[in-house]
Amino acid sequence: xxxxxxxxxxxxxxLVILALLFAWTVGxxxxxxxxxxxxxxxxxxxxxxxGAAFSPSFSDQNPSLPAxxxxxxxxxxxxxxxxxxxxxxxxxxxxxxxxxxxxFASEQWLPTNKSRPVLNSLRWILRMGLSLxxxxxxxxxxxxxxxxxxxxxxxxxxxxxxxxxxxxxxxxSELIDEQIRSARNVITASGGSGAQGxxxxxxxxxxxxxxxxxxYRFECALRSSAVLGFIGIETIGxxxxxxxxxxxxxxxxxxxxxxIALVIIVESIGNLIRRRLRNGVPRxxxxxxxxxxxxxxxxxxxxxxRSLGMAAIIGILAAWNLGDILLKPxxxxxxxxxxxxxxxxLTPDPVAPERPVPTWEERKKAWNTGSDQVIPWLTNxxxxxxxxxxxxxxxxxxxxxxxxxxxxxxxxxxxxxxxASAKPLGxxxxxxxxxxxxxxxxxGIFILTRAVPEYLYAFxxxxxxxxxxxxxxxxxxxxxxxxLGRLWSEVVENRNTSEPREILRLGGSRLQAFxxxxxxxxxxxxxLFFFYRWESCVREATVLxxxxxxxxxxxxxxxxxxxxxxxxxxxxxxxxAAVIAGDILSDVLRKKLRS
Amino acid sequence: xxxxxVKDATRRxxxxxxxxxxxxxxxxxxKVALIGPSGSGKTTLLRLLGLQEKPSxxxxxxxxxxxxxxxxxxxxxxxxxIGMLPQDLGLVANLRVIQNIVLGRSGTRNLLRxxxxxxxxxxSDRREIFESLQRLxxxxxxxxxxxxxxxxxxxxxxxxxxxFQGAEILLAxxxxxxxxxxxxxxxxxxxxxxxDEQGLSLIVSLHQVELAREFFPRxxxxxxxxxxxxxxxxxxxxxxxxxx
Lengths: 595, 244
Description:
The complex is a heterodimer.
Chain A: H1 3-29, H2 42-51, H3 72-105, H4 116-135, H5 138-149, H6 153-178, H7 182-189, H8 194-227, H9 236-245, H10 249-279, H11 292-297, H12 303-321, H13 332-346, H14 360-370, H15 374-415, H16 432-451, H17 454-465, H18 469-493, H19 498-505, H20 510-544, H21 552-561, H22 565-594
Helix pairs in contact in A: 1-15, 3-6, 3-8, 3-9, 3-12, 4-6, 4-22, 5-6, 6-8, 7-8, 8-10, 9-10, 9-17, 15-16, 15-18, 15-20, 15-21, 15-22, 16-18, 17-18, 18-20, 19-20, 20-21, 20-22, 21-22
Chain B: E1 4-13, E2 16-26, E3 31-35, H1 42-49, E4 57-62, E5 65-66, E6 70-71, H2 75-79, E7 82-85, H3 97-102, H4 111-119, H5 123-135, H6 151-165, E8 169-173, H7 184-198, E9 201-206, H8 209-215, E10 218-223, E11 226-231, H9 235-241
Parallel strand pairs in B: 3-9, 3-10, 7-8, 8-9
Antiparallel strand pairs in B: 1-2, 1-4, 5-6, 10-11
């Protein structure tokens, strides 16, 4: 059996494994998709909801509002600005922090002398710390910060900033280590220091990719900022929740449209900047080559990117300085007391001191009397409900990514630009106009589905279908359909080789060219992205349960209402462990596929 | 006085030895071509001469600096007088030409100055770089992004960096691999004429025997980490060098 046969068989096994896994998730999550009371009609409910999509409301739907109440559109504007503001503040904290963390998590600063192994192990500890921090979802950070420092805008910003910093740190460190060392080596070989080599030879080369990724993280922070509304922070999510719960579906759709528009605008600006950073700008004015001054004055400058950079700085300054006070004033002592109470609540129950604000002596005493109970406490939590909650969470993520992958696979041949045109892969063919329209439509689906955050989908779907695991699975699948669709389309579009063109030339259809050539050629990269998205599905699935379905998030929200932060911490760390395991698994698979 | 003194230098990587007992010396202003089949130790020898690695055994002294025995000046100061032209040129693609060149003087400047140089190079630096780019015939590219230049133009940028650095020795690792074959002669003409004008010592590793003979009075043949000949080789010596 030669290598290509082995590859095909290997991939068939993958299909079989995915089918079996999906069957397992169905067995695990049940087949009940709709879970409403007997009298409720899910068709009527969804018809009402989706019908309202065509009649978004521009004024309050509540007829009994007092005349003094803030009108709907004004409320919406404030919510939207606040959503944007928190995301801007968060990313302005996360970028510098991520840069510092990323530098220390990279190999760049390691000396070549004897202390290298010791420092390298410190670097690995830092990397693991970053993984742990990023594995915990923004919503959980927000719950913990709300309890620790109270309800302030700063709470929301920190909850967004902390996981973002960790993710940026991880990605920045990888980008830094990926760069070719040649330019740095020339600098050090001509007497420059390691720091000079880094500043001159590595950082400039890594910078475009770093900016590009930071822009993507800003987009994510924006979506997360909206989602924070669902736990009561006053962003657009809160508005959507209120309108939905009051059955003002027109209002819901207006807010959805505005949020989607904002996300799409941010994404398109990001794409523009990305393209310009990659290609640079051509020289517009020819200058006489005998005058240095003339050359310098006519040097190609990207005014678009520069003015956006200025706008970003102004935006950050405005976000920090305008609007509500970031940290609500409180008496210093109160704040410390609150934090101390929170820490006591965070302590595992068996060793928790009795009084809410304990002294050191009381803490020590509690530890001495209860420390042998900690392990049984943990085992009990794991037995019930930890184990089951974890399995359900993983099952949801697996079902979602398989659904998203299968749908994206069906749509990609219709959406990829190189196929959806009159001249697929440069060959004149029939039916171009219709294919072009279908292509634009499919790409529109990808853009729309990824613009809405998973949690928001989940909230709406649970509202329509009633509480069961499947609305959550569909929510995860929808968002990831948009992302996978885009990533996979890009893979197909970049594969401009002769094999698919040959199939078209011989009279094959576009679909045949896709199935027989483009798909097998791109399959490895497809699988790579599939696992990358699965890992983020696990992370998201840990919080979706907060909407009332038996999984980790469910127990986190239940324990939150009892202020049992020790148990919340347990479930959060359990979820983080699953994310890290998924991270490692997908890393291993990706490395295998690359080689 | 010789610029470079190498005595019985050996360099091993694990079990394989890239260099096995090489000795040579080089006078100021000398031009040397280093030829030999792939894997004969040319790059390793250049790295040792550039004080980037220590020999496993023997001595390498460049500009009076020996990594094993000690240096007349500090290592950084010595290195600031050695220009390196690696095979891939070592330029940052998305920086402007002037930014890449100004980094050549990192060895004699501190970190803060390097940061300043990247954004606001001083007037005298700008003038100096402009003049040397004029001499290399690519002055009009001074403020363009380096990746918008052709292979040959990029090589001139890398060369301008070494000139701006104020190198006394230039070590070039296969400088012809980045340009198309027809331009090879021009590149070597430029390198050797710069060497003549500025009294720059030149060590260039090459694959093209004919070009080496045309431009270099002294040719060193390396095979399996040993020097096979040093001077003006006969045709038989060349044939033997490339015989496996």
